[in-house]
UniProtKB/TrEMBL annotation:
This is HEAT repeat domain-containing protein. It comes from Amycolatopsis balhimycina DSM 5908. InterPro entries: ARM-like, ARM-type_fold.
Amino acid sequence: MVTINHASDTQLLDALSAGNSSARLQAALALGIRADPGLAGAVVARCALEPDFFVRDMLTWALTRLPADVVVPRLVTELRSGRAQARSQALHTLSKIGDRTAWPAITPTLLHDPDDEVARSAWRAAVVLVPPGDSAELAVELAHQLGRGDPAVQLSLSRALVALGDVAEPALQPALANPDPAVRAHARATERLLHDPDAGFDLAVDEAKRIVALGPGAAC
């Protein structure tokens, strides 16, 4: 087991690939406390491989402790990785750092990534990093994906749109008239959440499906 106070950098980095997840978690914690910019590359690389959610979360925390000008360029490079976890974890970490210099790297390709976890991470990162003047365009880009995925994916997309505020409502309008009932229902559920953020998503979806099935008059 790695001891935080006495382990060398080499020991900590070796422990990141230990078979025991507790040892990896302690090593990630130690690296975060140490906050050595020289170890940023190794921590970013481990994020792409780490199988345990809690260890990945600790690795993200460790990266947020480092200077943004050291970490952000490395994370942006990861966004071009062929490994889905590398892209997803880099996006997640960028959303936690909140440095808007990374915004140009949040491309439509990432927002439409075929891997749901990557796309969800991209939506969250985009909402955090988007400059105010680009929010409306981002809302339109996100609205193109209404109807995508299972309920968890749809909730993530709705939350991202709701987080953009007033610019989301006009972006929803084309989807509300989409011939696909799943798209219309998701758009209506998102519209409901936009007006009532405390409304439960499942109830909003059920109500939207009822309205879609019965026609516009059912909303009255």
